[in-house]
Amino acid sequence: MQIYLPIAEVSVNAFLLLGLGGIVGILSGMFGVGGGFLLTPLLFFIGIPPAVAVATGANQIVASSVSGVLAHLKRRTVDLRMGTVLLVGGILGAFLGVGLFNHLKQLGQVDLLVNLFYVVFLGIIGSLMMVESLRALRKSRRGAPPARKKHNWVHGLPLKMRFRTSGLYISVIPPLVVGFSVGVLAAIMGVGGGFIMVPAMIYLLGMPTKVVVGTSLFQIIFVAAFTTVMHASTNHTVDIALALLLLIGGVVGAQVGTVVATKLRAEQLRVLLAALVLAVCLKIGLELLLEPSELYSIAETH
């Protein structure tokens, strides 16, 4: 069933959009990532203009993240205090990121720079996660006791706060820096930033994986909402019809993903997320290296 998207000015199969929204929703509920790093390229592939894909994709991320957070709140796996600290840093970083993005846009080749950001960050994070996750999975299969968290430099910083849901007593500085960094990258790359936030929360802050998922979704809601509002008010690139179909699929998928996440062990979740991150990195990297079908593009200059 074809449906015409007025802002994108293309006709797309409605069931295909529902499926894309559902897939991203499942990932959101399972891993605590908004799914923008996957949804936006997928929308490119089916012919949605990049500006519309980024803005509308952010809108869908809000919906699927809200659905996932509600499910995690019922299971008490959301650290609201940690999420608030991360959010403060994220909003500040998003403001700076928007200004930086506009500056890079004036310099030209911003699309190439965004793709390079994807390849570098996804490649590094995915590789580190895969190595650590496989090591932890092997230890668990051998019946070895889980390694106790070691105190690192994070625990020696001042301004400490107790995060009871996460079982942590650490400085607020690292969460603020993590949130700020993700906010900057999210503004430049047009995503919620969960694929960076989740590993940082696990390996840097030492949060339990089950709590990380819900807390990350809580932070993503507001970062993605800020992005949507900025695009809708300045660029007018939010397609309501596209957003509605993605939203329906995303909300349903998030509930499914949350249930699946409770059935898998933490090590298995990390391996799956690492494999997904590396797959997206490889796809974007190949697009940078292979010769495009259209060698030239026409752009309007002011």
From TrEMBL:
<dbReference type="InterPro" id="IPR002781">
    <property type="entry name" value="TM_pro_TauE-like"/>
</dbReference>
<dbReference type="InterPro" id="IPR051598">
    <property type="entry name" value="TSUP/Inactive_protease-like"/>
</dbReference>
<keyword id="KW-1133">Transmembrane helix</keyword>
<keyword id="KW-0472">Membrane</keyword>
<dbReference type="Pfam" id="PF01925">
    <property type="entry name" value="TauE"/>
</dbReference>
<protein>
    <recommendedName>
        <fullName>Probable membrane transporter protein</fullName>
    </recommendedName>
</protein>
<keyword id="KW-0812">Transmembrane</keyword>
<feature type="transmembrane region" description="Helical">
    <location>
        <begin position="12"/>
        <end position="39"/>
    </location>
</feature>
<feature type="transmembrane region" description="Helical">
    <location>
        <begin position="51"/>
        <end position="73"/>
    </location>
</feature>
<comment type="similarity">
    <text>Belongs to the 4-toluene sulfonate uptake permease (TSUP) (TC 2.A.102) family.</text>
</comment>
<keyword id="KW-1003">Cell membrane</keyword>
<feature type="transmembrane region" description="Helical">
    <location>
        <begin position="212"/>
        <end position="234"/>
    </location>
</feature>
<feature type="transmembrane region" description="Helical">
    <location>
        <begin position="85"/>
        <end position="104"/>
    </location>
</feature>
<feature type="transmembrane region" description="Helical">
    <location>
        <begin position="116"/>
        <end position="138"/>
    </location>
</feature>
<feature type="transmembrane region" description="Helical">
    <location>
        <begin position="240"/>
        <end position="262"/>
    </location>
</feature>
<dbReference type="GO" id="GO:0005886">
    <property type="term" value="C:plasma membrane"/>
</dbReference>
